[in-house]
Amino acid sequence: MARPSQTPQPPVTQPAVSAAWVWAYLGLAYLALAVYAAVGGHLVSLPDEVRQAVRLAADILHLATRLPVFRP
Amino acid sequence: MGQLNLLLGSAATLLTALAAWRLAGHGAFHLHERLLVSAGTLWAMVVALQLVAGTLLRLTPVWVFLLSAGVSGTILLSRPTAARSADREQGARRPATFLVRVLLAILALQSILVLWTAAVLPPQGWDEWWYHLPPIARWVEQGKVDLMPVAEEWRDPERVAALNDYQRRYHLSVTGFWSNVYPLNVETMAMWSLLFLRSDRWVDAAQWPLVLLGAAAVYGLTRWTGVRAPGPALAALFWALLPINQMQARTAYTDTALAATTLAALLFFLRWTETLSWPHYTAFSLYAGLALGSKPPALAYMGILGALSLALVILRAPREARSKGDARPTGEMQRATEFRPRHGSNWLRPALGRAVVHGLVLLALAVAAGGFWYLRTWLAYGSPVYPFTVTILGQTLFHGLGSVDSLIYVANTPQEYMNTGFLSNMIRSWFEDSREPYSFYTRTGGFGAIWSVLGAPALVLFGVRSVQSRSARGLTLMGLGALMVAIHSGSWWPRYSIVAPGVGLVAAGWLLAEGLGHRLLRLQLTALVLAATAWSLLRADLSLIQALPRALALPPEQRTIGRLYLADYSPVEALVPSGARIGYAPMTFIYPLYGPNLQRHAEQVDGATPREWLDSIRRARVSHVSMLKRYGPHYAWARQSGGLLEEIKTEGEVALFVVRSVPPQGGGGAAAGGDLP
Fold first, then answer.
1. Among the four B102, B284, B518, B635, which has the fewest Cβ within 10 Å?
2. Could you tell me which residues are beta bridge partners of residue B659?
3. In a 3-state reduction of DSSP, which class is residue B436?
4. Which of A12, A22, A71 to probe the B interface (max B CBs under 10 A)?
5. Residue B459: DSSP 8-state
6. Contact (Cβ atoms closer than 8 angstroms) between residue B230 and residue B94
7. Residue range B329-346, pLDDT digits in tens
8. Which residue of chain B comes nearest to A39, CA vs CA?
9. How many A×B Cβ pairs under 8 Å?
């Protein structure tokens, strides 16, 4: 057990899988995206969050640089 | 003096980092492994050097520099190692893809944002004000490391017994008590900048480097499972960009630290199971200690990995004994075969011996890198895990004030998560089905779309594929990850289970590495990854930058906790001058009293009776006293102090009194109170 191994191990790489696995992943990911968007009202609140982020960014840019920045 | 300290700090940091890099050169590590070992060693040295200075000498920049120069110099002057990087041996080069480049650029921009907010804003977290930062402020101020004073309440068993679980937890939080029982590796690392710069500007960035450290561990885990490039880089970047990690990166909390160190320990444990080399075992032991020094749940995680490592040492012994027997010359092999029963029974004793040696190495390194905090708690309170009661199979191993559930989770579980099942709560928090806004503390979200859209679906397919192809590596990783999630009763709370996406995003790395090679899939996958990342970071950054406009509108010296976060403390900032000594009765937040860059001295004043309390104020020679109006008898005692104390301002729950018969320490007319309202 205490064999001092200074020899690097050969890299192990999984064999490639067929594209069907990735298509299945894409399908599940879109489904998860739909669930995520629906629950908790994430999709509904997204425009508000974007507006809030843009306003905050404009304020921060103006305050940090003292340059006139358009605030939507 | 300030410039000299900066010079000493820079030199100490450079020397310690070089020494850590040299120490990490003692093993044939891959590049990411060597970086991890160097970072872990640097962190352990930074903690150890300051604690040695603070307990045996003086916690001053000069002493810490001298210690670091001595230790680092010894390491750097020692014989250089012959070990070569495993990556160089293999000539491995992994070209970055477009997606990796984009995500790296996003991580760089996020890092700039995190560091900028840490520099502009004062420490922001409630737990920081209560117990993460007060001990390091106290240690730097007094030049020595000791226990925080706890409230009189905790010396009276009858008063403690009269509290219910919620009150007990709450009252514990605000008396400096948690500072004395929790491990403080992250906080002590943050103290490095506080000590050398005499500024708390960077203490809130304590976990930022740990996000990068955790990402390197995820990279290693993904490579270990055999995922081809660019899967490991993508998995690592996803983990680093998880909203909870970005939000925690600018707090001196310990959740990202626990996850990062646990993932690194897991990586080195898994690598050791294959190489059986001492460098990998010592790296595992180092990170076991760093995890223990970050947060107590590591006791369970590292307990499992440690027990597994010792079991493996013993279980592999018969196979090794057989392979040694098979390798003998023919005649000898015959004799060995003849005596096989006797030979077979002889493997146990050396196996147990090797297990003991491995156990001792694990214990020694784990205690040195962070486990010592539990010894401190044991010495101070009679149990290494005080105040938690630990019961296994009906037997109480350690007595305390209550179980982890009763002291932590019952009070913190959101109403909609009550009695709805562990698994259900976990999946709901993954998909963030509540409207709780994001913060470093968020209970019902924090992994964002990165995890729910990219990670969780990939995990399902990775599990199926691992079972189907009987992939030992995939099944081992998923099994250990699932075990870590299952044994932590708070795994529904994202910040308590950041280790889960660390393991699970390996799956996303695998599928993306497979899919990005297909022309038809590449565009869709890239768009999906960028959309999920942008959505996750939008919510995280809203939380990160929320207070920036208010802060930037103020001059730097006015960007204080009282002005930006908690108005109850603004009178302290306005009326207690820099350099003054301020006393605090139990239950007030401690850290805001110090002010920016520890400009005031804060000291607890407490007593069981009015006379004791007023005596303690006189003894402490404080010029002001701060207390909560509605906790304990202190406010009433202060108003009937016979002229010793005069109320000068009360804002919200916090009352501020000036001490009349003790001369002020910091000068300034405000301390005398003559011209105050």
1. B518
2. B645
3. coil
4. A22
5. H
6. yes
7. 555 444 444 444 445 567
8. B433
9. 152
State both tokens at B297: 């749940």
pLDDT tens for residues B461-515? 999 999 999 999 999 999 999 999 999 888 899 999 999 999 999 999 999 999 9
Among the partner residues A9, A30, A31, nearest to B275 by beta-carbon distance: A9
- pTM greater than 0.95: no
Mutate to test the interface with B, among A5, A43, A67 (most CBs of B within 10 A): A5
Binding-face residues of B in 443-472 toward A, CB within 8 A: 445, 449, 452-454, 456-458, 460-461, 465, 469, 471
Sequence-distant (≥ 6) Cβ neighbours of residue B618 within 8 angstroms: B644, B661, B662
Q: How far apart are alpha carbons A13 and B468 in whole angstroms? A: 17
ipTM of the complex in this document = 0.87
Secondary structure E strands in B472-617: 581-584, 601-604
- Nearest alpha-carbon partner for B200 in B210, B212, B187, B209: B187
Cβ–Cβ below 8 Å for A1 and B90: no
Q: How far apart are CA B376 and CA B54, in angstroms?
A: 14
* Strand partners of residue B402: B388
Rounded (5°) CA angle B399-B400-B402: 120
Token pair of B365 as six digits: 């390194």
B contacts of A46 (beta carbons < 8 Å)? 535
Is residue B649 less than 8 Å (CB to CB) from chain A? no
How many other CB atoms sit within 10 Å of the CB of residue B460?
15
Q: Find the length of chain A.
A: 72
